[in-house]
Amino acid sequence: MSKHVPDPTPATLLPSVGDIVDDTTGLLRADGELTPGQGTITTTLALSLGFLSFMGVLAFLFPQYLTTPELRKAYNVDWCRALLFGGLLVSGTLSLFNIVFNRRRNVNIIAFAFVLVTIALGGSTVPVGDFPDHTPYLGMDWLVLDLLGSTTVFVILEKLFPLYKNQPIFRKEWQTDLVHFGVNHLLVGLMLLIVNFVIHRAQLIVVGEEGLQQFIGNIPFLPQLLLCLLVADLAEYAVHRAYHEVPWLWRIHSVHHSVETLDWLAGSRLHMVEILVTRIAVLTPLFLLGFDKSVVDMYIVIVGFQAVFNHANVHLPWGPLKYLIVTPDFHHWHHSSEKVAIDKNYAAHFAFIDYFFGTAVKTDRQFPEKYGVVGSRIPDGYLKQQVYPFAKK
Ligand SMILES: [Zn+2]
Ligand SMILES: [Zn+2]
Questions:
Q1: Membrane-spanning residues where (predicted)?
Q2: Are residues 207 and 128 in the same domain?
Q3: How far apart are CA 342 and CA 156, in angstroms?
């Protein structure tokens, strides 16, 4: 990456721990284009896969604390073992090659150490025993699998159909958004617990209309899913608009708007309070109206995809579809700091909602030129952003 300074001294057999740490943190702090030929690309790959493999083996070793019950039912453990084996093989080969040929040797020592520790802990053949359910857990498996899957899918999409061709994968402040991504995934269990608790309370207070619930539950899958998306998006629209128009709510939501380079990872930048409030506000009506579980599950998959995709650095020829559904073009305008775009394009699934309420951006230009928040300066860094809305002005 551009800011990295190569090792000034010739390689010795035993590098100091200080140098190893300095070089690795130097790489992690850097941003910019990955220039081929210096070993940076293979080093980044080796370090990422080495660390993901290490997290993967921990999830296998302590499934009761590090796996997500809802997700665990959906994936095949043997595939995950094969994935872990592949990760170790690629990371081990690349890091060893780089150590031998002295290409970013110190960082590759860390990558290779992750591989060795992972193998020592059992590697891809680590036994996974039975374990009790209902333990407090971190969604480590969810983090590893989603990070691997999303990075692969979206980096390919962003390279094939880029909106901004020269935007590097490791763009400015990628580290902050990766921490948001990591924490949001690890705390998935805690968030589900809070959201379910509130929805359960709401169901007790507002007893759903049984006739209506039965009617909705009996609608065939596809039209029921479309209705579910519409109800969810109307709730999302209302909450999102409130976040923009009520000053103290805006302080919370402005964290999401503080990112100035949009890509698939940028959508993860959300204040914890916003994640909880939005989920509760959107899921409560879905449960009160009696949507079928299979429909709500599919809705969760769609909202998960669209929340990431709408921020991606991707441009596709949407044609008239852009008036119907929310595309990256539509949501990119929502993040613009240009006057024409302020407090516009709130919807998350259906663009026509904003056209209906008169809040769609009106412009002939296809894309905005400037992104971010007008006026206030929101700090960079995960913890600073969590504190920001509650700090004194
Ligand atoms: Zn917004
Ligand atoms: Zn956004």
A1: 44-62, 82-100, 107-126, 138-157, 178-199
A2: no
A3: 31
- Is the dihedral angle over the CA atoms 146, 147, 149, 154 positive or is it negative? positive
Other residues' Cβ atoms within 10 Å of the Cβ of residue 169? 20
Write down the residue that tokens 């000053």 correspond to: 247
Provide the number of structural domains found in the chain.
Answer: 2
**pLDDT tens per residue across span 74-126:** 888 889 999 999 999 999 999 999 999 988 888 999 999 999 999 999 998 98
Quote the ligand 2 centre to 267 CA distance (angstroms): 5
Cα-to-centroid distance, 223 and ligand 2 (Å): 27
Distance 251 CA to ligand 1 centre (A): 11
For residue 290, give its domain range: 188-390
Which ligand is closest in space to the CA of residue 240? Answer: 1
Instruction: Enter the pTM of the model.
Output: 0.90
Which of 114, 137, 160 terminates a domain? The answer is 137
Q: Which ligand is nearest to the CA of 332?
A: 2
Q: Alpha-carbon distance 345 to 358, whole Å?
A: 9
Cα–Cα dist 206/4, whole Å? 58
204/126 same-domain check: no
